């Protein structure tokens, strides 16, 4: 039995692997830059370094990149 034309239109081709890898790396780097920027801003404005946030700033970009990558799987 042939699929109907509407079913064929709904299936999308995933993006190429190189593009997905590049976008995943950019999401991770952008999230890391935002986190580091927030740390520097809070250090300058509040004159206090939020030491509890340093591990989070290093871990959250990995979580964001993996979540972005899993949207396509």
List keywords for this structure.
single chain; 73 residues; mainly alpha; 74% helix; transmembrane; transmembrane helix
What's the short story on this structure?
The protein has helices at residues 5-10, 17-46, 53-70. The protein is an all-alpha fold.
Report on the structure:
- Keywords: Membrane, Transmembrane, Transmembrane helix.
- The chain crosses the membrane at residues 18-40, 52-72.
- With 73 residues, the protein is mostly helical.
- It has one domain.
- It contains 3 helices and no strands.
- It has helices at 5-10, 17-46, 53-70.
- It is rod-shaped, with a radius of gyration of 19 Å.
- 3% of the residues are buried.
- The mean pLDDT is 86.
Strand element count:
0
Give the CA-based shape: rod-shaped
- Biggest β-sheet description: none
Extract low-pLDDT stretches.
none
Helix content: over 70%
Strand content: under 5%
Number of domains: 1
Instruction: List the secondary-structure elements in sequence, H or E.
Output: HHH
Category from helices, strands and their pairing = mainly alpha
Average pLDDT confidence is 86
- Radius of gyration computed on alpha carbons: 19 Å
Write the layout of secondary structure elements.
Elements: H1 5-10, H2 17-46, H3 53-70
Helix pairs in contact: 2-3
């Amino acid at each position: 039995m042939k699929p109907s034309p509407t079913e064929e239109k709904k299936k999308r081709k995933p993006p190429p692997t190189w593009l997905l890898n590049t976008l995943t790396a950019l999401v991770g780097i952008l999230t890391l830059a935002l986190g580091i920027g927030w740390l520097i801003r809070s250090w300058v404005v509040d004159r206090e370094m939020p030491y509890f946030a340093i591990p989070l700033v290093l871990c959250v970009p990995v979580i964001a990149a993996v979540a972005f990558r899993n949207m396509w799987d």
